[in-house]
Design brief:
Strand order of the largest sheet: 4-3-2-1-5
Order of helices and strands: HEEHEHEEH
CATH class: Mainly Beta
Shape: elongated
Distance between the termini: 72 Å
Structural class: alpha+beta
Strand content: 5-15%
Helix content: 25-40%
CATH architecture: Beta Complex
Number of strands: 5
Largest sheet: 5 strands, antiparallel
């Protein structure tokens, strides 16, 4: 719990701090969408690379220009790499099937494009990926346990109150 409290509103200071097991959120988004880091060196871009998306202004030529346009109070170091991020979705829960392997394969091969953020715009999410998945699954696990408890009580009620009579065949 202290780790979670210490991480609140803590920003990423250096590119080397990025970890594939952690979750991050960009400060300029009003809705806190969580992202995970992708450590693929073939996808690396620098803040000084050309901005290849729709331009909101004529002054936007690089990634650094775009993010400085979005958040004018934060200056972007143009010599640093951008972090390659991918948005995470809430995991689908199906306890009848073991979908852990197939889900991971689908998420890694998804055609969704990668998002680039400068280090200055990233904050740590309160939880890492594994904790997020566990906490997300907790309510459905508790509901399932309560359902099993009620089913067991009903089974005992039937067993105690139903009179079984033997049938004689004549």
């Amino acid at each position: 719990m202290t780790i979670i409290c210490n991480r609140k509103n803590k920003s990423v200071q250096n590119y080397s701090e990025l970890n594939d097991d952690e979750l991050y959120w960009p400060i300029h988004l009003s809705r806190k969408q969580l992202y995970m880091n992708i450590s693929d060196h073939s996808l690396l871009k620098r803040a000084s690379d050309e901005w290849d998306h729709k331009k909101d202004s004529e002054n936007i030529k690089t990634y650094a220009d775009y993010f400085e346009y979005k958040e004018p109070d934060i200056s972007i170091r143009r010599d640093l790499y951008l972090s390659t991020m991918k948005g995470i979705k809430k995991p689908k829960i199906n306890y009848l099937k073991d979908t852990s392997k197939t889900t991971k394969e689908k998420t890694n091969d998804s055609p969704k494009e990668h998002i680039y953020y400068p280090i200055e715009h990233l904050h740590y999410a309160p939880l890492n990926q594994k904790d997020y998945e566990l906490i997300y699954k907790l309510p459905s696990i508790l509901i399932r346990i309560s359902q099993l408890y009620r089913i067991e009580r009903l089974r005992k009620l039937f067993a105690d109150n139903i009179k079984c009579y033997s049938v004689r065949i004549i």
